[in-house]
Amino acid sequence: MDESDVAFDVALSAQSFDPFSPKYAPHFREIYQHMRAECPVAHTGALGGTWAVTGYDDIARVLRDPETFSSRYGVFTARPNPNLPRRGFGPRDEQRTGPLTATPAGPNGEAPRLNFLPLELDPPVHGPYRQAVETPFSPAALSPLAPWMLALADQLIDAIIEKGEADFCRDLGTPLASIYTMKFLGLPLQDWPDYAWLVQTARAGSTSVAPRTKPPTELELHDRVAAEIVRQRTQPLADGLIGHLLQTTVDGRRLERWEIESTVWLHIGNIATTPACLASGFVWLSRNPDQRRRIVETPDLLPHAIEEFLRVFAPAHAVSRTVMRDVELGGRLLKAGDRVMLSLVSANFDETEFDNPDRVDLDRANKHHMSFGDGVHYCTGADAVRLEFHSILGQILRRMPDFRVEEAGLQPTPVPAMVAGYAQVHFTFTPGKRLGGPRIAD
């Protein structure tokens, strides 16, 4: 008998907690609620053995103590999966040179990951790398992108506005996040379908877009990123994060190519997570026409709705850390070398932090959710993600406010423990007129 056919028992699911169990997707809120109440720091044999941390305060404590809970030895919660890239998108080991290659082994002798910088670094090494990427994400740098993003949103809507039907993920959410990511990083805009196809297939388990010509391999996209870095070395004024990092120094030295690659691949992950969460917010708007009408009539409520979408529909359910010294957490003794899985989505539903946490509340005052993390690794792209949400949802509400999602055609992402949200969202609306503005990308 398949596990998914067995009647759901929340206590049993919590006791044998596994975020990759078939029971997890339809019941994760119940499971986490039970764990927060009964055992907020619980050990599970899943994922090779790890501590599952589910309470808001405990998670905040871990994220704010990188000396005790290290990021160097892997931050993503995953199990072996044939659909996942062999190297997790990180640079090839034989290319690594420079000071970071001297990073010490972990408590169990494990090698540092360093596939995603600066996320897989700890202070004090982390600080200079973090500073290197913060400038492109600053309000001053993002402000000029706002009209460009609106123009892109309008171009995407123009392509479907006369049809009266579309798929949100294929036609709006994924193209917007992907094209923006290409522009921000300084990669060719026209390559966005290839990156979207590979990253969404690998991380989210499915995708609604097709590659430009043929499905690219992980190695092919690796080589494209590496080649673009080499090309831009001769173009010191090139736009995008790649150009910025080529001109930036860390501790007085230029970054190695692999370090730039690691930083670029970290931000390419936006192509999987942002569209999935955007789709969840879009579905909620369809299911709650009164609240949608309220936002249309009072546009200042849209930023509040976006924060609630990010909290309730967090696309990244968890991150992991390695315990560097024996420590007590939530009444349990964790040993050096233990792994901890921090359930960010559980923190977002913690009743001690948020009133009526299951409800999307446009008037909620507490916006300190954990979807972007906390501490030194708080997501650098948080404001950019908010800009993406505001651009596409704002234009949809303005130009096709009567949209209706076809519930029977909804396709959730298959492995929410990796990326939670929707992969296909077919919807209908009253056809409208094209604006015919500038074309951003083809």
Strand arrangement across the biggest beta sheet = 1-2-10-7-3
Q: Quick one: CATH superfamily? A: Cytochrome P450
Helical segment count: 16
In the CATH classification, which architecture applies? Orthogonal Bundle
Strand fraction: 5-15%
Mean pLDDT: 92
| Gyration radius, in Å | 22 Å
How is the CATH topology named? Cytochrome p450
Question: Based on DSSP secondary structure assignment, what is the total number of beta strands?
Answer: 14
Walkthrough of the structure:
By secondary structure, the protein is of the alpha+beta class. The protein has one domain (3-428): Cytochrome P450 (Cytochrome p450), CATH 1.10.630. Helices cover 41% and strands 10% of the residues. The chain is built from 16 helices and 14 strands. It has helices at residues 10-15, 24-38, 56-63, 126-134, 139-142, 145-158, 168-185, 192-204, 218-232, 241-246, 257-268, 270-287, 289-297, 302-312, 344-348, 382-399; strands at residues 41-44, 50-53, 69-70, 165-167, 249-250, 253-254, 318-323, 327-329, 332-334, 339-343, 404-405, 411-412, 422-424, 426-428. Helix 12 (270-287) crosses helix 14 and helix 12 packs parallel to helix 16 (382-399). It is globular and about 65 Å long. The protein starts with 9 loop residues before the first helix and ends in a 14-residue tail after the last strand.
